[in-house]
UniProtKB/TrEMBL annotation:
Binding positions for Mg(2+) per the UniProt entry: E234
Cofactor: Zn(2+)
Catalytic residue list: K196, K249
Name listed for the protein in its UniProt record: Delta-aminolevulinic acid dehydratase
Pathway: Porphyrin-containing compound metabolism; protoporphyrin-IX biosynthesis; coproporphyrinogen-III from 5-aminolevulinate: step 1/4
Organism: Phascolarctobacterium faecium
Catalysis performed (reactions): 2 5-aminolevulinate = porphobilinogen + 2 H2O + H(+)
Family under the similarity heading: Belongs to the ALAD family.
Subunit: Homooctamer.
UniProt lineage: Bacteria, Bacillati, Bacillota, Negativicutes, Acidaminococcales
Top-level enzyme category: lyase
Keyword rRNA-binding found: no
EC number: 4.2.1.24
Residues binding 5-aminolevulinate 1, per UniProt: R206, R218
Binding site for 5-aminolevulinate 2: S275, Y314
Amino acid sequence: MGFPIYRPRRLRATENLRSMIRETELSVKDLIYPLFVVPGIGVKNEIESLPGNYHWSLDRLPEVLQEISELGIPAVILFGIPSYKNAVGSSAWDAEEPVQQACRLIKNTYPELVVVTDACLCEYTEHGHCGVLENGCTVNNDETLPLLAKIAVSHAQAGADVIAPSNMMDGYVKVMREALDEAGFSNVSLMAYSAKYASAYYGPFRAAADSTPSAGDRKGYQMDPGNSDEALREVALDIEEGADIVMVKPALAFMDIISRVKETFNRPLCVYNVSGEYAMVKAAAAKGWIDEQRIVMETMLGFKRAGAKMIITYHALDVAKWLLGK
């Protein structure tokens, strides 16, 4: 049945009609907001590479937590800048470092807020790689695994609801799941960075988290951007090892991967709208070249349409305000 009997424009005539047939909806409840916590007192420093986002010391963190709670954003993901670094990144499982302290603070003051913690070593090692280095340039996968287990247990002890390992080591989910269960944290979930690509979109984050490798790159353990089938194999492995939630990162340039993962696996799917994607929008908006709100909301809908259940995004506060009409 074609024109003139069928006229699709009839159902686009008014906002109410469009809303009635809209296939994909975006909600505040889809959002996870990244927070960068740092040592010190009185720190609220805007991150140059991520305008509108800040480094927070523990004493000032309640300021943004109150806003997050009032907007109804259900979850945050914590990234920490440690007070010290060494070759193995032992500050990552130190109970007195910023991430662990932030977990305790949040669960004491906003217990309903879901606390996700990024579990990796790149922010905590002197060399900026995601594991133990051998020969100064290669990450030793199997020597790294016990350290990741320590991080997971430390975060769970501090009150984290979800541990999000982002290191892309082989076997990482299995080791962390076993460690959590043995320590009595069988109810703590794992959100695996299952399909994490060796992407150029991470630059602003690495500046914000002080995690740029001092030498070499991460192509030996993060995925090649040209691969699609490999992503499905990686996701399958993580599910088999105990991942409760799987992730595709970055999101914008990998919509096809999001769609394939959604269609193939019966697991909650998170996407990470990463720092480079955010920074490009902010830079273009500052120049007046784009309508920031429309671009961001269209992008969020694209993630949902591709199959995402959850979206980690630096735009979360703005998106929530726009959705709520604030």
